[in-house]
Amino acid sequence: MYFCSMYTFAEENYLKAIYKLSELDTQAVSTNAIADLLQTKAASVTDMIKKLSDKRLLKYEKYKGVELTDKGKKIAIETVRKHRLWECFLYDKLKFGWDEVHEIAEQLEHIQSEVLVDKLDEFLEFPTHDPHGDPIPGKNGIVKKTNFILLSELELDKKAIMAGVVDHSSVFLQYLNKLEITLGIQVQLVERNEYDGSIEIQIQRKKLHLSKEVAKNILVKLK
Amino acid sequence: MYFCSMYTFAEENYLKAIYKLSELDTQAVSTNAIADLLQTKAASVTDMIKKLSDKRLLKYEKYKGVELTDKGKKIAIETVRKHRLWECFLYDKLKFGWDEVHEIAEQLEHIQSEVLVDKLDEFLEFPTHDPHGDPIPGKNGIVKKTNFILLSELELDKKAIMAGVVDHSSVFLQYLNKLEITLGIQVQLVERNEYDGSIEIQIQRKKLHLSKEVAKNILVKLK
DNA sequence: AAATATTTTTAGACAAGCCTAAATTATGTA
DNA sequence: TACATAATTTAGGCTTGTCTAAAAATATTT
Questions:
Q1: CB-closest option in A95, A112, A119 to B94
Q2: pLDDT at position A223, please?
Q3: pLDDT tens across B132-141, in order?
Q4: Are B89 and A86 in contact (CB under 8 A)?
Q5: Cβ-count burial of A218 within 10 angstroms (0-12 exposed, 13-18 middle, 19+ buried)?
Q6: Is B179 part of any domain?
Q7: Which residues of chain B have a CB within 8 Å of the CB of A112?
Q8: Number of structural domains, chain A?
Q9: Which residue of A has its CA nearest to B93?
Q10: What is the structure's pLDDT at B25?
Q11: Which of B9, B83, B111 is the best mutation test for A, with the most CBs of A within 10 A?
């Protein structure tokens, strides 16, 4: 290949997975955790880890898990940036549902062209969040921390704005579709049931009852 | 893989190449021709040909070249359709130059999602030609023949519209950029030099002298 | 028609990325 | 502390897609 910095789809997917896991936990990322996330086997992970270690994209000590190097983290964040920008494109421009964009963006994120990413960013008018409320890393690699809180932890009578989801699965997103819960709408906590943690919320002109399970997977931004 | 019909990048590229070559010539496509076009070795082509033949995507007789089956042709045309739609997107929406779109579209054409292609087509308002004037195959697989003629064969004093190129190389497209020759502009043949076949044309307010070499690579549509 | 040149195929090898099964190391518990 | 369990790595194998070198078939030339 004639590209100056070319990484394979598999390499980028591993780096992205390791980055995601390392954000959840300060400890080194374990082989099994990566295998679970990528739906592959631990032995395959060990193979790939060695290759990425040889390329100085992560630090690896046998039996001790891995940590991304700056170089590895940079590639991971670039991949996340591309993924989320493509999700915006699919959602805003092509009118895909928010439950449909992930799979296609999973392919598009591997397209190699720095200019393409920049032009896409400009075309979309520099979006800051993807259709699920996740922040889009900047060109400089900086990822803004969002200070969203769980809907399940919203105080009584407080108003907030629907801002994101924890669970990104199609099933969950489609359930929210059915309830007409979309990003940007106002929610107010009307009642909390202390027994099962379920809540009553007011959105638009409707009152909705949500289980604690659902409320724990919805992120809101205080007004 | 869970997709119903999944072909690898390599398979799609081979089918596309064979389709392209079979359009140039009614004969069966030779191994070497494929190797040349794909910048690979004849031995590699033989290997892949066998696989595609096993999958009933082409008919193959040893030492006799190959011919696409209907199934193989369908996939090739779908790939061309995707390639050209993405080129339109890059050119019309992201404002890439017509000399820059091919390489990126070469990657984008392999994204798997039928609904993506349809939505892209709609978003682009059903374009009929890509930024180089090549026709975009329909969803039904029908490729409209363009009745363009070579600028080198335009009759004296006749007016025509710049409609496409034969040579798709960046070097050639950039040369046309410099001359401000773009698709859609009117051209009139002012003079033909019988000695070297070079021509004098009138475009917008300018007169331009073009070598036969250049004129033979420009396609025009009679008014 | 025979000799030569070209094209195509075969044989064997390699890297990437995955797998299973077995061995090894780490961890948790009696 | 020793044993059992869990996590990780190694060993060896598979597929895809590529390559080189050599053999075989076809085409061309004399």
A1: A119
A2: 82
A3: 999 999 999 9
A4: no
A5: buried
A6: yes
A7: 107
A8: 2
A9: A123
A10: 87
A11: B111
